[in-house]
Design brief:
35% strand, 23% helix, 7-stranded mixed β-sheet, 5-stranded antiparallel β-sheet, Cathepsin D, subunit A, domain 1, single chain, alpha+beta
Length: 460
């Protein structure tokens, strides 16, 4: 196809475009001249033959922060290539070629298909597609015109959602996080009124007759049916205090303040798990550097794992491969008065662990996480990978019992497979949704919302 004009158009850092051949009337694109290739959000990708030609079909959520609108698209396959994603990891993607309308211009571009749920923008426009056709002004946005919410609703046939449900607050720190956005979306899709409350902007009135939570500007928070605490480790004390305040006001907290506090104390949580008869890796704890050697021998010697009690998302976890290294790490932490655990190293796990997502006493989704090359611990926040796994009956039982022992309604339970059977590593009271939703393609956020509905005996 040909460009309508030889004059180059100046576009901004984001624009609306149309992919009519795919049935997409409008999609907001991130313009990125630093990226070589262009990409379109796609999931449920399947290949098939039409005559002698290979085709690909896939689902698209074309609108940001809206998983309710879903389109099924199909196109002939142009190629399959190894592409590096934004984190530097390589993945094999299908490539299609389709006409794109950008402003008043039309031309064919190549698009790679990949799941962009975590990226916000459903499409990325790279420099190969722009070469010789447009100029980019990164300081501007929507140079070619904006599309209103009303226009989008008409384009996609979206009926307004009637909010006749519950009033649910999400108590967290960052509204832009994938997990927080997904919970807001899922609640609104179910017809609930969703409110984001920033922990740092809340303050409390302690009163035995009329306890209150106020929000910045003096607004008194009223009428809540439930609160979902998503408290980052650094905000545990104040976040739990706020959750406790809501509980005193008769608001249902999906995870209670006491349960969150218990799960955040790594030593106490391990003691609770043992008390419930659940298996954990052999673990030692001491307060004095004088006991370092005995502590090392207590867990079977090196190699061993050293964990800071206050660490999160894999931070503050060190593998000490020799006794000398273990002594150095332990004594260094002790010198700065850091509390730590030492734990036996399960070599046969091979840098893999399981994350089981438990909701209201049931394992709702599960993934296996594998460490990045050169790392010893599986962590998708540090370059690790996640894949779907079918946990054993024993692993499911262990995850459910661990969640119950902590008093949590929702938990991410981390389990490691050893030659003696599954062992519990940790019970997370604010488990992330991105890794598990992307790998399993399950709507875990919706499951969390429906769990609240069940607890409050609400039905549509």
């Amino acid at each position: 196809m040909h460009i309508a004009s030889t004059e180059k158009t100046i576009i901004g850092s984001e624009e609306w475009c149309q992919l009519a051949q795919l049935g997409i009337p409008a999609v907001k694109v991130r313009v990125d001249s630093g990226a070589k290739t262009s990409a379109l959000h796609a999931f449920n990708i399947q290949t098939f033959k039409r005559g002698n030609v290979s085709w690909v079909s896939f689902d698209v959520h074309p609108l940001q922060n809206n998983r309710k609108v879903s389109l099924r698209c199909e196109s002939p396959i142009l190629d399959r290539r190894i592409i590096k994603n934004t984190s530097g990891a390589s993945e094999k993607r299908y490539v299609i070629k389709v006409p794109m309308r950008l402003g008043e211009q039309f031309w064919e571009i190549e698009l790679t298909l990949t799941n962009r749920d975590s990226m916000g923008y459903r499409m990325l426009l790279g420099r190969e597609a722009m070469a010789g056709r447009v100029l980019v002004d990164p300081s501007s946005s929507m140079n070619l015109g904006r599309i209103s919410d009303l226009e989008l609703r008409e384009m996609y046939g979206i009926a307004p959602t009637k909010k006749t449900g519950l009033k649910i607050a999400l108590l967290a720190t960052n509204p832009e996080l994938y997990s927080n956005q997904r919970l807001i979306e899922a609640g609104e899709e179910r017809g609930h009124e969703m409110v984001f409350l920033s922990i740092k902007d809340c303050y409390m009135k302690l009163d035995d007759e009329n306890p209150e939570v106020h929000y910045r500007g003096g607004h008194i928070i009223t009428g809540l049916d439930a609160v979902i605490p998503r408290i980052r480790p650094s905000a545990t004390f104040y976040g739990c205090a706020l959750t406790r305040q809501f509980e005193s006001m008769g608001v249902y907290a999906q995870n209670g303040s006491l349960a969150i506090s218990q799960s955040r104390d790594k030593l106490f949580s391990l003691q609770l798990l043992i008390k419930s008869g659940l298996d954990i890796p052999l673990t030692g704890f001491a307060n004095s550097p004088i006991d370092t050697n005995e502590l090392i021998e207590m867990v079977g010697g090196a190699p061993l794992i050293v964990k800071l009690l206050e660490g999160s998302q894999g931070r503050g976890v060190v593998l000490a491969e020799t006794k000398k290294a273990a002594q150095s790490v332990i004594n260094a932490f002790k010198a700065v008065k850091a509390n730590l655990l030492v734990q036996e190293f399960i070599k046969e796990a091979g840098g893999k662990d399981l994350r089981l997502f438990v909701i209201n006493g049931k394992v709702s989704a599960a993934i296996q996480r594998e460490a990045a090359p050169g790392e010893f611990r599986a962590n998708i926040h540090q370059g690790g990978t996640a894949s779907v796994v079918r946990p054993t009956t024993e692993e499911r039982r262990l995850a459910v019992k661990a969640t119950k022992a902590m008093g949590l309604a929702v938990a991410g339970v981390d389990i490691i497979r050893s030659k003696t059977g599954p062992l519990l590593l940790e019970v997370n009271s604010s488990p992330g949704l991105e890794g598990i939703e992307t790998a399993t393609e399950k709507d875990v956020a919706r499951m969390m919302i429906t769990a609240i509905e069940q607890q409050l005996k609400w039905s549509q």
